[in-house]
Amino acid sequence: MDTLQQMTGVWLYGGYFLLSVVSALFPWVNAEILVLSMSALARTPSALILVVLIGTAGQMAGKTVLYWAGRGTLHLGLRNITRTAEGWHERLKKYRWGPYTLMFLSATVGVPPFYVMTVASGALKIPFVPFVLLCTAGCTIRFGLLVFMPRLLIALFR
After folding, report:
1. Mean pLDDT, the chain, as a whole number?
2. Taking a C-beta distance cutoff of 8 angstroms, is the pair 21, 56 a contact?
3. What residue numbers bound the domain in which 68 lies?
4. pTM for the whole thing?
5. What is the pLDDT of residues 32-42, one digit of tens each?
6. Which of 73, 49, 50, 58 has its CA nearest to residue 23?
């Protein structure tokens, strides 16, 4: 591979990472479309894995900012979501795994909305390490399915 192709790849993946961060912070920038667009450019299975990992890393970098905003460490003007989170806290505290299950489901399938659950996780003072681990696993699964499921179905029906 020549130097120009390598530089193009670095810029392409770097831009993709930054757009993934932006999509985590601004819900109208769709992460799934970004992942699918990048997967269309990938030529090898290892490049597809890289697409999934970079998309997940960008999402989680942005989501950690929202988590700390929900926690009150960063001030981004998210008071309404924080108040909503406090209402959810009352419902969920009777279930031992309730908040953790919701975080994982939200990161994996987007229901409840991942943006809201991220801020709520910070507002509810859910420990940071479980938040990062569960949400990273959920995002990796979601993006992995988006990237590999179409290829699996095509191979299955050939």
Report:
1. 86
2. no
3. 3-156
4. 0.85
5. 999 999 999 88
6. 58
Task: Give residue 74's region: left, alpha or beta (phi > 0; psi -120 to 50).
Answer: beta
State phi, psi for 73 to the nearest 5 degrees.
-75, -40
- How far apart (Å, rounded) are the C-alpha atoms in residues 12 and 155? 28
Tens digit of pLDDT for each residue in 107-136? 999 988 899 889 888 888 899 999 999 999
Give the number of domains in the chain: 1
Report cis status (omega within 30 of 0) of the bond before 113: no
- Note whether 9 and 16 are within 8 A (CB): no
CA dist., res. 127 & res. 101, Å (int): 14
| Token pair in block for residue 29 | 């920038």
CB 34 within 8 A of CB 19: yes
For residue 142, give the amino acid letter.
R
Candidates 82, 34, 63; CA nearest to 133 is 63
Q: State how far the alpha carbon of 158 is from the alpha carbons of 149, 152, 154, in Å.
A: 14, 10, 6
